[in-house]
């Protein structure tokens, strides 16, 4: 028969995922009770809304079932009082809170275009929506600091909340987590007139200081071209892959080849190329009309020796949904096979890809 003393002994092996001290020594265990095979553990935490709760539950359950595999462990949380919280913080002084300590992101996909105006941000949002519709946990990091557009497309206007670990991303209607500079500005029409080093620092903070929690995919909306911001993402964030976006014009193809060269030089894998605004479907006869000229996507992909992921039509309905903050309700049927390929080709993160050159 398992005793309460044995339960406490095994709880001493459970480490706080951020502070790296055992939860018994941190006086976080408020109550332990056992009746037959039912165990109830009450854990006191500084704030109820902290992202490490799932990790604590899992660690506690794993530690206690080693006593007896039949144990059914229930973990409940209570919030510390003000004085208890202050004592806890004093006890852990010198151990800085870190969002990175609790973030578990399996895949990071960067979306990059050579030039502006080819729909790179809408492709980013569509990719996030399509991944979320597959039942995956998804976040969007808007790294286009001087031209942020993700909040508007998702209909987000509230400011992010702060937590002891860092900034909490804002959630969309379907649960996609979004962080953008526009969510931090007092006026979303305010221009961000910053030099490169400050932009790069902000992107690093969005990666290091935002509490993303557990994500299957984090999709990064890069600014167009080969600026400091894109270099920062390539060099500071471990990427599963990069998706390139172009449009039918040969000019767009020429510029995206420059962007591809940067990606290849820095050693990040390219998952493939998407040609946006390839055609428009006539509402009367259903015929595809190439309003921007013949497609150059396949030719560009072949020149770069990468895969052509697919073509996306120019759809007025998409513009309506983006302007209305309702991109999550857009059908996006043309995007489904593209996402299938991306999911198949994007490896889970194991390490930061090596820099080449500098």
Q: If you had to describe this structure to a student in words, what would you say it looks like?
A:
Helix 6 (196-208) runs parallel beside helix 7. Residues 350-358 have low confidence and may be disordered. 32% of the residues lie in helices and 22% in strands. A hairpin with a 6-residue loop joins strand 13 and strand 14. It folds into 2 domains: 4-96, 2-Layer Sandwich (GMP Synthetase, Chain A, domain 3), CATH 3.30.300; 101-345, P-loop containing nucleotide triphosphate hydrolases (Rossmann fold, 3-Layer(aba) Sandwich). The strands form 4 sheets. The protein has an 8-stranded mixed β-sheet with strand order 8-9-5-10-4-11-12-15, with helices on both faces. Strands 1-2-3 form a 3-stranded mixed β-sheet, covered by helices on one side. Strands 6-7 form a two-stranded antiparallel ribbon. It has helices at residues 4-11, 53-65, 82-91, 120-133, 150-154, 196-208, 228-236, 250-266, 297-304, 316-323, 336-345; strands spanning 29-35, 38-45, 72-79, 104-113, 138-142, 161-163, 166-168, 170-171, 177-179, 214-221, 241-246, 270-275, 280-281, 288-289, 308-311. The protein is built from 11 helices and 15 strands. It is of the alpha/beta class. It is elongated. The N and C termini lie far apart (62 Å).
């Amino acid at each position: 028969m398992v005793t309460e003393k044995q339960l406490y002994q095994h709880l001493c092996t459970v480490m706080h995922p951020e502070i790296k001290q055992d939860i018994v020594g941190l006086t976080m265990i408020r109550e332990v009770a056992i009746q037959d095979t039912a165990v109830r553990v009450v854990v006191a935490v500084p704030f109820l809304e902290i992202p490490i709760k799932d990790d604590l539950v899992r660690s506690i359950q794993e530690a206690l079932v080693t006593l007896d595999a039949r144990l059914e462990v229930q973990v409940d949380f209570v919030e510390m009082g003000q004085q208890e919280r202050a004592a806890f913080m004093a006890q852990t002084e010198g151990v800085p809170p870190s969002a990175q300590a609790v973030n578990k992101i399996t895949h990071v996909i960067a979306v990059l275009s050579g030039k502006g105006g080819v729909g790179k941000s809408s492709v980013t949002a569509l990719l996030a929506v399509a991944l979320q519709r597959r039942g995956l946990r998804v976040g969007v990091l808007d790294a286009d600091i001087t031209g942020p557009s993700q909040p508007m497309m998702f209909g987000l206007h509230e400011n992010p909340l702060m937590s002891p670990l860092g900034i909490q991303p804002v959630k969309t209607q379907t649960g996609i987590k979004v962080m953008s500079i526009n969510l931090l500005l007092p006026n979303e029409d305010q221009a961000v007139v910053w030099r490169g080093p400050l932009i790069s620092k902000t992107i690093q903070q969005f990666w290091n200081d935002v509490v993303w929690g557990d994500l299957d995919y984090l999709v990064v909306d890069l600014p167009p071209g080969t600026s400091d911001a894109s270099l920062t993402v390539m060099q500071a964030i471990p990427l599963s892959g990069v998706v390139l976006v172009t449009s039918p014009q040969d000019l767009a193809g020429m510029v995206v080849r420059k962007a591809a060269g940067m990606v290849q030089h820095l050693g990040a894998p390219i998952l493939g190329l998407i040609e946006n605004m390839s055609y428009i479907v006539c509402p009367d006869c259903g015929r595809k009309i190439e309003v921007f000229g013949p497609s150059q996507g396949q030719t560009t992909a072949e020149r770069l020796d990468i895969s052509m992921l697919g073509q996306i039509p120019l759809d007025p309905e998409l513009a309506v949904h983006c302007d209305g903050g309702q991109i999550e309700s857009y059908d996006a049927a043309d995007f489904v096979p593209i996402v299938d390929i991306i999911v198949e080709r994007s490896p889970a993160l194991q390490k930061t890809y090596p820099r080449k050159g500098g």
